[in-house]
Amino acid sequence: MVELAKESTTLRQVLDPVFVYLDSRRHWVPQQGLAMVVLSDMLYWEASGNHQLILGAVIRHLDHKNVSHDPQLKSNIVQVAAALARQTRSRGVLAETGFVSDLCRHLRKSFQATLESVGQQESNLNILLQNSIEDCLLEIAKGIDNALPLFNMMAISLEKLPSSGIVARATIGSLMVLAHMISLALISSRSQQVFPEDLLVQLMKAMLHPNVEVRMGAHHIFSALLIPSSSHPRHEVASLRSGFVYEPRRWRSTNASAFASISALLEKLRREKDGIKSEKNGCNIHEDFKGKDNMEEDSKQGLVVKSSRNIYTITSIIDRTAASNMVEAVRTIHHEADGGSDNAVTVRFLDTGHSF
């Protein structure tokens, strides 16, 4: 029946009763469950390009009334979806990214339920669901050749970021997970993505959010996307469940060196753009050697800095906005840091002179 379903509407009409049957008989158990066997066979024999539609249908089934209020069942379905995503990307790249938004929405709801939960059992089930969604997002991110649609989705989510504490924290937490998954996928594929301007603008606005945990989360997202790292710390995600109580983070030496290189490159680009020629034979030469030494150190440690296009984009955006809303934003945060709020956080933006 699946082979005969050549259109998405027909395929959905075939899959819906199958999913309902799997729900009623609790057949969504990963590995040995009937759902995994049947859906895996569907993907194997599907030759009309509908294999991504099958994956999307499984993820969208999380909103079904049989599933929506059962974290254990949702976790099983997401684990099956992760296995299907792994099987799907083995046949080529994933062109459809719409279901990533659905996964992030369920992750946000799970974070929100964790922050509001009172029972240990409910909390454990939500943590299981969050880990399952995290693994599924990683499998999907590995199969996506162009991360720009994901960046656009993150920018839209940040643009709609509410002022409410719990909802905003849950939203930023889901985007933190997605950012780390994209970072890991970029590391494994060794591909380079240009940092989009819309996302950067929304991240800078999130860095000015009234909630301190949201501001911290925005900085984590920015650093994860700017400097992709294979050392994804699960304790950062775990901290979301305990109310964003972050432990002091120890940066890897490679990351610290990469940030030093970026700072040197940013300063060099800024001086060149401002037309400061008098320092070119003095201070700029020193900065050039400093940046070169840092990049050589990165190369020795196995990290290759490929962010020059990102750095130029970020520098130009900062310069364009510095005369308008950035100045006012910096004044506001400095006012908070000087005495307006006990929870104010002042973070220097890559040592370029802009503080948040």
Written overview of the protein:
- InterPro entries: ARM-type_fold, SRL2-like.
- This is ARM repeat superfamily protein.
- It comes from Gossypium aridum (American cotton).
- Residues 244-257, 295-308, 321-337 and 339-356 have low confidence and may be disordered.
- With 356 residues, the protein is an all-alpha fold.
- It is built from 15 helices and no strands.
- It is globular.
- It folds into 3 domains: 8-241, Leucine-rich Repeat Variant; 253-321, no CATH class; 322-356, no CATH class.
Oligomer description? single chain
The percent range for strand residues is under 5%
Q: Can you tell me the number of structural domains?
A: 3
Computed over alpha carbons, the radius of gyration is: 23 Å
* Average pLDDT reading: 74
Structural class: mainly alpha
Secondary structure elements and their pairing?
Blueprint: H1 8-24, H2 34-45, H3 51-60, H4 71-89, H5 98-116, H6 120-142, H7 148-159, H8 165-189, H9 197-206, H10 212-226, H11 234-241, H12 253-274, H13 283-300, H14 308-321, H15 325-340
Helix pairs in contact: 1-3, 2-4, 3-4, 4-6, 5-6, 5-8, 6-8, 7-9, 8-10, 9-10, 12-13, 12-14
Protein name: ARM repeat superfamily protein
Organism: Gossypium aridum
InterPro entries: ARM-type_fold, SRL2-like
